[in-house]
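Standup notes
- DV: blocked on the single-chain target, sequence here:
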Amino acid sequence: MTPMSALIVSIALTFAGGCAHADDVIVNDVRLDDGVRRTLERMYNVEIEAGRYWYDPVSGVWGRDGGPAVGIVHAGLPLGGPLRRDASRGNTGVIVNGRELHALDVAALQRCVPVQRGRYWVHASGFGGHEGGPPLFNLAALCGGGSSGGGVQCDGSGSCGASATRSGVTGIVSEGGGRAGVSYNGKYIMTPN
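- DV (later): unblocked, structure below
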């Protein structure tokens, strides 16, 4: 069993039983069981302070209720209820995985990519696009996830011609028809979608 599988099994078993205390952690409006809290504290080697938090299970991004993102953990953890649009009390018109981004989230993204109002999805890998559409960008590459500190962003039509890619840079390339892939060091790798 992988460490991630063990964590998910541990969290699921802990959710099945347990009692709440006044100093519990609230994630997406649901109280986090003490056992789950201890498991997460061991896994990330941190102490989780009592309080209210939001968690995006698609990207793994989290923050304090009403505030911007402050960290990233594993995506897909069975923590809390559904992510609310107003979890960050954002008013930016930029919605990612259902959460309207806080102004500080948008400012951070604008350091590496132009940000436009709209609805988007972003996975933990950094791949994202317009809600319901194919991958159009890779935030990990665009925001310096590679040694080159650069990347490729497709235009709004989903097109990234050969002129938009260059060797040594990771990014998304569109083949059209909703198919996209990853360009890495000049090699094209197809991704399922």
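- Follow-up: The chain has two domains: 3-72, 94-190.
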